[in-house]
Amino acid sequence: MSRLTIEASTPLCLLQDAGRFGVRHLGVTQGGAADWCSMSWANWLLGNGLDAAVVEITLGGFAVTAEEDCLLALAGADLGAQIDGQPLAPWRSFALAKGQTLRLTQPLLGARAYLAAPGGFAAPQVLGSRATVVREELGGLDGMGSPLGKGATLGYGGEGLAAREVPLALRPDFTRDTPLHLVLGAQIGQFSGQSLFDVFNSAWTLDSRADRMGIRLLGKTLHYQGLPMISEGIPSGALQVPPDGQPIVLLNDRQTIGGYPRLGALTPLALARLAQCLPGAKVRLRPVVQEVAHREHVAYLQRFEDR
Protein backbone atom coordinates (compact mmCIF):
# COMPACT_ATOMS: atom_id res chain seq x y z
CA MET A 1 0.00 0.00 0.00
CA SER A 2 1.30 3.47 -0.92
CA ARG A 3 1.34 6.20 1.71
CA LEU A 4 1.43 9.94 2.23
CA THR A 5 2.70 11.47 5.48
CA ILE A 6 0.78 14.45 6.81
CA GLU A 7 3.21 17.30 7.54
CA ALA A 8 0.63 19.93 8.53
CA SER A 9 -3.10 19.92 9.18
CA THR A 10 -5.94 21.72 10.96
CA PRO A 11 -9.17 20.57 12.66
CA LEU A 12 -10.95 21.48 9.39
CA CYS A 13 -9.06 18.85 7.34
CA LEU A 14 -11.13 15.65 7.33
CA LEU A 15 -11.41 12.33 5.56
CA GLN A 16 -14.73 12.28 3.70
CA ASP A 17 -16.65 10.24 1.16
CA ALA A 18 -20.22 10.45 -0.19
CA GLY A 19 -21.69 10.13 3.31
CA ARG A 20 -23.45 7.72 5.67
CA PHE A 21 -26.98 6.72 4.70
CA GLY A 22 -29.72 4.49 6.05
CA VAL A 23 -29.01 5.26 9.70
CA ARG A 24 -30.80 8.54 10.38
CA HIS A 25 -33.58 6.68 12.18
CA LEU A 26 -30.87 5.89 14.74
CA GLY A 27 -30.05 9.58 15.15
CA VAL A 28 -26.86 9.32 13.04
CA THR A 29 -26.30 12.12 10.56
CA GLN A 30 -24.97 11.61 7.03
CA GLY A 31 -21.63 13.48 7.03
CA GLY A 32 -19.73 13.32 3.73
CA ALA A 33 -18.10 15.89 1.46
CA ALA A 34 -19.68 19.33 1.72
CA ASP A 35 -18.98 19.96 -1.97
CA TRP A 36 -19.86 16.56 -3.43
CA CYS A 37 -19.35 17.86 -6.98
CA SER A 38 -15.68 18.70 -6.43
CA MET A 39 -15.15 15.44 -4.53
CA SER A 40 -16.62 13.52 -7.46
CA TRP A 41 -14.40 15.29 -10.00
CA ALA A 42 -11.30 14.61 -7.89
CA ASN A 43 -12.15 10.90 -7.94
CA TRP A 44 -13.08 10.97 -11.64
CA LEU A 45 -9.62 12.29 -12.48
CA LEU A 46 -8.11 9.05 -11.17
CA GLY A 47 -10.76 6.64 -12.38
CA ASN A 48 -12.02 6.01 -8.83
CA GLY A 49 -15.60 5.40 -7.85
CA LEU A 50 -17.13 8.84 -7.39
CA ASP A 51 -17.77 8.08 -3.70
CA ALA A 52 -14.21 7.00 -2.83
CA ALA A 53 -12.68 8.52 0.32
CA VAL A 54 -10.85 11.83 -0.17
CA VAL A 55 -9.34 14.51 2.03
CA GLU A 56 -11.57 17.58 2.43
CA ILE A 57 -9.27 20.55 3.03
CA THR A 58 -11.10 23.63 4.29
CA LEU A 59 -9.29 27.00 4.08
CA GLY A 60 -5.82 25.45 3.66
CA GLY A 61 -3.14 24.71 6.24
CA PHE A 62 -2.57 21.17 4.96
CA ALA A 63 0.56 19.44 3.64
CA VAL A 64 1.56 15.88 2.74
CA THR A 65 4.84 14.28 1.68
CA ALA A 66 4.97 11.30 -0.68
CA GLU A 67 6.70 8.15 0.62
CA GLU A 68 6.98 6.89 -2.99
CA ASP A 69 6.24 8.21 -6.46
CA CYS A 70 2.49 8.63 -6.89
CA LEU A 71 -0.32 10.15 -8.92
CA LEU A 72 -2.86 12.25 -7.00
CA ALA A 73 -5.72 14.57 -7.96
CA LEU A 74 -6.94 17.93 -6.70
CA ALA A 75 -10.33 19.56 -7.34
CA GLY A 76 -12.45 22.30 -5.83
CA ALA A 77 -11.17 25.52 -4.31
CA ASP A 78 -7.87 27.12 -5.20
CA LEU A 79 -6.10 27.07 -1.83
CA GLY A 80 -2.72 28.14 -3.15
CA ALA A 81 -1.48 24.59 -3.70
CA GLN A 82 2.26 24.13 -4.22
CA ILE A 83 4.61 21.22 -4.82
CA ASP A 84 7.95 22.06 -3.22
CA GLY A 85 7.15 25.75 -3.70
CA GLN A 86 5.93 25.45 -7.31
CA PRO A 87 2.27 26.47 -7.90
CA LEU A 88 -0.25 23.75 -8.68
CA ALA A 89 -3.69 24.60 -10.09
CA PRO A 90 -6.70 22.45 -9.08
CA TRP A 91 -8.97 20.40 -11.35
CA ARG A 92 -6.22 18.04 -12.47
CA SER A 93 -4.32 14.91 -11.55
CA PHE A 94 -0.58 15.31 -10.97
CA ALA A 95 2.56 13.39 -10.14
CA LEU A 96 4.15 13.70 -6.72
CA ALA A 97 7.63 12.18 -6.56
CA LYS A 98 9.01 10.42 -3.50
CA GLY A 99 10.05 13.02 -0.93
CA GLN A 100 8.12 15.87 -2.55
CA THR A 101 5.62 17.85 -0.46
CA LEU A 102 2.21 19.07 -1.55
CA ARG A 103 1.12 22.10 0.48
CA LEU A 104 -2.21 23.98 0.47
CA THR A 105 -1.88 27.37 2.11
CA GLN A 106 -4.89 29.71 2.05
CA PRO A 107 -8.07 30.46 0.07
CA LEU A 108 -7.54 32.21 -3.26
CA LEU A 109 -10.88 31.15 -4.76
CA GLY A 110 -13.41 29.02 -2.92
CA ALA A 111 -13.24 27.41 0.51
CA ARG A 112 -12.82 23.63 0.15
CA ALA A 113 -10.37 21.57 -1.89
CA TYR A 114 -10.48 17.80 -2.33
CA LEU A 115 -7.40 15.59 -2.56
CA ALA A 116 -7.88 12.14 -4.06
CA ALA A 117 -5.58 9.11 -4.40
CA PRO A 118 -5.90 6.03 -6.64
CA GLY A 119 -8.55 3.72 -5.23
CA GLY A 120 -9.47 6.17 -2.47
CA PHE A 121 -7.81 6.62 0.92
CA ALA A 122 -7.94 3.60 3.22
CA ALA A 123 -9.87 3.77 6.50
CA PRO A 124 -12.30 1.52 8.38
CA GLN A 125 -15.94 1.71 7.37
CA VAL A 126 -18.26 2.73 10.19
CA LEU A 127 -21.96 2.19 9.50
CA GLY A 128 -21.17 1.87 5.81
CA SER A 129 -19.01 4.97 5.37
CA ARG A 130 -15.57 6.44 6.06
CA ALA A 131 -16.99 9.98 6.38
CA THR A 132 -15.71 11.91 9.40
CA VAL A 133 -18.31 13.41 11.75
CA VAL A 134 -16.34 14.85 14.67
CA ARG A 135 -19.38 15.54 16.85
CA GLU A 136 -20.59 11.95 16.64
CA GLU A 137 -17.07 10.45 16.83
CA LEU A 138 -17.60 8.44 13.66
CA GLY A 139 -15.40 7.79 10.63
CA GLY A 140 -11.98 9.08 9.65
CA LEU A 141 -8.66 7.28 9.78
CA ASP A 142 -9.27 5.91 13.27
CA GLY A 143 -13.00 5.28 12.88
CA MET A 144 -13.58 7.59 15.86
CA GLY A 145 -14.22 10.86 14.03
CA SER A 146 -10.82 12.44 14.58
CA PRO A 147 -9.62 15.18 12.20
CA LEU A 148 -6.46 14.46 10.23
CA GLY A 149 -3.41 15.29 12.33
CA LYS A 150 0.25 15.98 11.71
CA GLY A 151 2.32 12.81 11.59
CA ALA A 152 -0.54 10.54 10.50
CA THR A 153 -0.25 8.56 7.28
CA LEU A 154 -2.78 8.30 4.46
CA GLY A 155 -2.71 4.92 2.74
CA TYR A 156 -4.18 3.95 -0.62
CA GLY A 157 -3.86 0.93 -2.87
CA GLY A 158 -5.21 1.68 -6.34
CA GLU A 159 -3.62 2.56 -9.65
CA GLY A 160 -4.49 5.90 -11.24
CA LEU A 161 -5.06 6.79 -14.87
CA ALA A 162 -2.73 8.93 -16.93
CA ALA A 163 -2.62 12.56 -15.81
CA ARG A 164 -5.61 14.57 -17.02
CA GLU A 165 -7.70 17.67 -16.28
CA VAL A 166 -11.39 18.42 -15.82
CA PRO A 167 -12.49 20.25 -19.00
CA LEU A 168 -12.88 23.99 -18.49
CA ALA A 169 -16.52 23.89 -19.55
CA LEU A 170 -17.33 21.46 -16.74
CA ARG A 171 -15.57 23.26 -13.89
CA PRO A 172 -17.81 25.30 -11.59
CA ASP A 173 -17.15 29.03 -11.73
CA PHE A 174 -16.78 30.12 -8.11
CA THR A 175 -16.63 33.78 -9.19
CA ARG A 176 -20.20 33.81 -10.55
CA ASP A 177 -23.11 35.09 -8.48
CA THR A 178 -25.17 31.96 -9.10
CA PRO A 179 -28.57 31.85 -7.32
CA LEU A 180 -29.05 28.88 -5.02
CA HIS A 181 -32.08 26.79 -5.98
CA LEU A 182 -34.53 26.08 -3.16
CA VAL A 183 -37.18 23.35 -3.36
CA LEU A 184 -40.16 24.77 -1.49
CA GLY A 185 -41.16 23.02 1.72
CA ALA A 186 -44.29 22.12 3.66
CA GLN A 187 -44.32 25.27 5.83
CA ILE A 188 -43.70 27.76 3.01
CA GLY A 189 -47.34 28.94 3.08
CA GLN A 190 -47.20 29.75 6.78
CA PHE A 191 -44.75 32.64 6.41
CA SER A 192 -45.97 36.19 5.86
CA GLY A 193 -46.31 37.44 2.29
CA GLN A 194 -43.60 40.04 2.93
CA SER A 195 -41.27 37.33 4.20
CA LEU A 196 -41.78 35.26 1.06
CA PHE A 197 -41.01 38.32 -1.06
CA ASP A 198 -37.87 39.07 0.97
CA VAL A 199 -36.57 35.49 0.80
CA PHE A 200 -36.29 35.53 -2.98
CA ASN A 201 -35.72 39.22 -3.64
CA SER A 202 -32.97 40.05 -1.15
CA ALA A 203 -29.29 39.21 -0.88
CA TRP A 204 -28.28 37.11 2.14
CA THR A 205 -24.90 37.39 3.84
CA LEU A 206 -23.16 34.26 5.08
CA ASP A 207 -22.47 34.62 8.79
CA SER A 208 -19.13 33.69 10.33
CA ARG A 209 -21.12 31.38 12.62
CA ALA A 210 -20.84 28.47 10.22
CA ASP A 211 -19.55 24.91 10.28
CA ARG A 212 -20.33 21.57 8.68
CA MET A 213 -23.60 21.46 10.63
CA GLY A 214 -25.07 24.66 9.22
CA ILE A 215 -24.64 28.20 7.92
CA ARG A 216 -26.64 31.15 9.22
CA LEU A 217 -27.88 33.68 6.65
CA LEU A 218 -28.08 37.33 7.68
CA GLY A 219 -30.64 39.65 6.12
CA LYS A 220 -34.31 40.59 6.37
CA THR A 221 -36.17 39.20 9.37
CA LEU A 222 -38.60 36.46 8.32
CA HIS A 223 -41.91 35.96 10.12
CA TYR A 224 -43.52 32.56 10.63
CA GLN A 225 -47.29 32.74 11.27
CA GLY A 226 -48.11 29.07 11.77
CA LEU A 227 -48.63 26.97 14.86
CA PRO A 228 -45.72 25.53 16.87
CA MET A 229 -44.32 22.41 15.23
CA ILE A 230 -43.59 18.92 16.45
CA SER A 231 -40.01 17.90 15.65
CA GLU A 232 -39.65 16.08 12.36
CA GLY A 233 -36.91 14.71 10.13
CA ILE A 234 -34.57 17.23 8.51
CA PRO A 235 -33.29 16.74 4.96
CA SER A 236 -29.95 17.87 3.64
CA GLY A 237 -30.02 21.56 2.75
CA ALA A 238 -33.07 22.35 4.87
CA LEU A 239 -33.60 26.10 5.24
CA GLN A 240 -35.04 26.47 8.73
CA VAL A 241 -36.12 29.70 10.40
CA PRO A 242 -35.61 29.98 14.18
CA PRO A 243 -37.50 32.55 16.29
CA ASP A 244 -35.03 35.37 15.49
CA GLY A 245 -36.14 35.22 11.85
CA GLN A 246 -32.64 34.66 10.41
CA PRO A 247 -32.62 31.46 8.32
CA ILE A 248 -30.08 28.66 8.72
CA VAL A 249 -29.05 26.25 5.97
CA LEU A 250 -28.47 22.81 7.47
CA LEU A 251 -25.52 20.91 6.00
CA ASN A 252 -24.02 17.41 6.09
CA ASP A 253 -23.40 17.20 9.84
CA ARG A 254 -26.84 18.54 10.81
CA GLN A 255 -29.04 17.07 13.54
CA THR A 256 -31.50 14.45 12.29
CA ILE A 257 -34.73 16.03 13.63
CA GLY A 258 -35.83 19.56 14.48
CA GLY A 259 -38.89 21.65 15.23
CA TYR A 260 -38.22 24.97 13.49
CA PRO A 261 -40.37 25.77 10.43
CA ARG A 262 -38.66 25.35 7.08
CA LEU A 263 -38.97 27.31 3.87
CA GLY A 264 -37.71 24.31 1.92
CA ALA A 265 -34.38 22.72 1.09
CA LEU A 266 -31.51 23.68 -1.17
CA THR A 267 -30.84 21.27 -4.02
CA PRO A 268 -27.68 19.13 -3.87
CA LEU A 269 -26.09 21.28 -6.59
CA ALA A 270 -26.88 24.45 -4.65
CA LEU A 271 -25.38 22.93 -1.49
CA ALA A 272 -22.15 22.13 -3.34
CA ARG A 273 -21.97 25.74 -4.52
CA LEU A 274 -22.70 27.07 -1.02
CA ALA A 275 -19.89 24.92 0.41
CA GLN A 276 -17.39 26.99 -1.60
CA CYS A 277 -18.59 30.37 -0.27
CA LEU A 278 -16.61 32.12 2.45
CA PRO A 279 -18.12 33.99 5.42
CA GLY A 280 -19.26 37.45 4.33
CA ALA A 281 -20.20 36.32 0.83
CA LYS A 282 -23.64 37.28 -0.44
CA VAL A 283 -26.03 34.75 -1.97
CA ARG A 284 -29.50 34.82 -3.46
CA LEU A 285 -32.18 32.16 -3.39
CA ARG A 286 -34.36 31.07 -6.29
CA PRO A 287 -37.43 28.81 -5.98
CA VAL A 288 -37.51 25.62 -8.02
CA VAL A 289 -39.98 22.74 -8.22
CA GLN A 290 -38.79 19.27 -7.30
CA GLU A 291 -39.16 17.86 -10.81
CA VAL A 292 -36.87 20.50 -12.31
CA ALA A 293 -34.31 20.06 -9.52
CA HIS A 294 -34.31 16.30 -10.12
CA ARG A 295 -33.75 16.71 -13.87
CA GLU A 296 -30.84 19.09 -13.25
CA HIS A 297 -29.30 16.65 -10.78
CA VAL A 298 -29.58 13.68 -13.14
CA ALA A 299 -28.14 15.76 -15.99
CA TYR A 300 -25.15 16.71 -13.84
CA LEU A 301 -24.46 13.09 -12.88
CA GLN A 302 -24.57 12.18 -16.55
CA ARG A 303 -21.46 14.32 -17.11
CA PHE A 304 -19.34 11.74 -15.32
CA GLU A 305 -20.67 8.88 -17.42
CA ASP A 306 -20.18 10.67 -20.75
CA ARG A 307 -16.41 11.03 -20.31
Assembly of the depicted chains: single chain
Q: Sheet bearing the most strands, described?
A: 8 strands, mixed
Number of domains: 2
For the largest beta sheet, what order do the strands appear in spatially? Answer: 20-13-14-17-16-19-12-21
Task: Note the overall shape.
Answer: globular
Total helical elements = 4
Helicity, as a percent range: 10-25%
Give the C-alpha Rg.
20 Å
- Counting helices, strands and paired strands, the structural category is alpha+beta
Mean pLDDT: 95
Sketch the topology as an H/E string, one letter per element: EEHEEEEEEEEEEHEEEEEEEHEEH
Strand-residue fraction?
A: 25-35%
- pLDDT < 50 runs, ≥5 residues: none
Description of the structure:
With 307 residues, this protein is of the alpha+beta class. The protein has 2 domains: 2-170, no CATH class; 180-305, Cyclophilin, CATH 2.40.100. 14% of the residues lie in helices and 30% in strands. The protein has 4 helices and 21 strands. Strands 20-13-14-17-16-19-12-21 form an 8-stranded mixed sheet. Strand 13 and strand 14 form a beta hairpin. The longest helix has 16 residues, at 290-305. The two termini are 28 Å apart. Keywords: ATP-binding, Hydrolase, Nucleotide-binding. It comes from Pseudomonas hamedanensis. This is Biotin-dependent carboxyltransferase family protein. One of its GO terms (molecular function) is hydrolase activity. InterPro entries: CT_A_B, Cyclophilin-like_dom_sf, PxpC.
